[in-house]
């Protein structure tokens, strides 16, 4: 059984569907990239999985449990982590407080120590307010917050947006590392080529539907995918 199975997913923010019958599968320990042009429904799909899309149809199964109708906070308790593209930290709180307020954590002190070892830059700035952090440091804090509960699945919505090229590379290394530790990753990303390069499977959306899917390497080598959806190699 797959860790995450999305079946015939529909939905949107109003009566108009943005998602039009999407099927996606994520197995444990995999990185699965969702790519596509602007407006294809990538971030909408992320919100549907974590419980933040107002209207959803179809099925979203986590280890066989249907998440439709399950509120976002309970999905988190079931093992779904989420790093949104914006508003991903509590700016008035310190780095340490951002981690301490995460609910449902066993051995909170020990887990924070583990994450500070994983993100040493955060350990150095543990007493700094999150609003004073650089873009890269904020992203690290958002990652750390999502990992506090040791989730089985992490949904990342455009994690490299607005980052410098050096930080983009660092971000992709960190994402690949999550899968290496057994955490499944559903990666929503505009930098499709770089995302697919660290992924097992890729899905390319177009107008709320899956236009292409397959092993990530095969999609990178697919001329149709490259010409229609991935852009030039140097663009990412």
UniProtKB/TrEMBL annotation:
<dbReference type="InterPro" id="IPR003593">
    <property type="entry name" value="AAA+_ATPase"/>
</dbReference>
<keyword id="KW-0547">Nucleotide-binding</keyword>
<dbReference type="Pfam" id="PF00005">
    <property type="entry name" value="ABC_tran"/>
</dbReference>
<dbReference type="InterPro" id="IPR027417">
    <property type="entry name" value="P-loop_NTPase"/>
</dbReference>
<dbReference type="GO" id="GO:0016887">
    <property type="term" value="F:ATP hydrolysis activity"/>
</dbReference>
<dbReference type="InterPro" id="IPR052156">
    <property type="entry name" value="BCAA_Transport_ATP-bd_LivF"/>
</dbReference>
<dbReference type="GO" id="GO:0015658">
    <property type="term" value="F:branched-chain amino acid transmembrane transporter activity"/>
</dbReference>
<keyword id="KW-0813">Transport</keyword>
<dbReference type="GO" id="GO:0015807">
    <property type="term" value="P:L-amino acid transport"/>
</dbReference>
<keyword id="KW-0067">ATP-binding</keyword>
<comment type="similarity">
    <text>Belongs to the ABC transporter superfamily.</text>
</comment>
<dbReference type="InterPro" id="IPR003439">
    <property type="entry name" value="ABC_transporter-like_ATP-bd"/>
</dbReference>
<keyword id="KW-0029">Amino-acid transport</keyword>
<dbReference type="GO" id="GO:0005524">
    <property type="term" value="F:ATP binding"/>
</dbReference>
<protein>
    <submittedName>
        <fullName>Branched-chain amino acid ABC transporter ATP-binding protein</fullName>
    </submittedName>
</protein>
<feature type="domain" description="ABC transporter">
    <location>
        <begin position="4"/>
        <end position="232"/>
    </location>
</feature>
């Amino acid at each position: 059984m797959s860790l995450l199975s999305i079946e015939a997913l529909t939905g949107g923010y109003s009566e108009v569907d943005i998602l039009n019958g999407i099927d996606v599968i994520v197995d444990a320990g995999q990185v699965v990239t969702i790519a596509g042009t602007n407006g294809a429904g990538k971030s909408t799909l992320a919100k549907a999985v974590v419980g933040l899309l107002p209207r959803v149809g179809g099925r979203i199964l986590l280890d066989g449990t249907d998440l439709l109708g399950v509120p976002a906070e309970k999905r988190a308790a079931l093992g779904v982590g989420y790093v949104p593209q914006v508003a991903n930290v509590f700016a008035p709180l310190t780095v340490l407080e951002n981690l301490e307020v995460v609910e449902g954590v066993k051995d909170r002190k020990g887990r924070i120590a583990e994450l500070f070892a994983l993100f040493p830059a955060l350990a150095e700035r543990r007493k700094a307010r999150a609003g004073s952090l650089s873009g890269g440091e904020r992203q690290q804090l958002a990652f750390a917050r999502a990992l506090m509960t040791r989730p089985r699945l992490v949904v990342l919505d455009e994690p490299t947006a607005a980052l410098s090229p050096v930080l983009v590379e660092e971000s992709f290394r960190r994402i690949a590392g999550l899968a290496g530790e057994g955490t499944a990753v559903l990666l929503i990303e505009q930098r499709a080529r770089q995302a697919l390069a660290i992924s097992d499977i890729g899905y390319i959306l177009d107008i709320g539907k899956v236009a292409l899917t397959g092993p990530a390497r095969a999609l990178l080598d697919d001329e149709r995918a490259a010409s229609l959806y991935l852009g030039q190699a140097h663009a990412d």
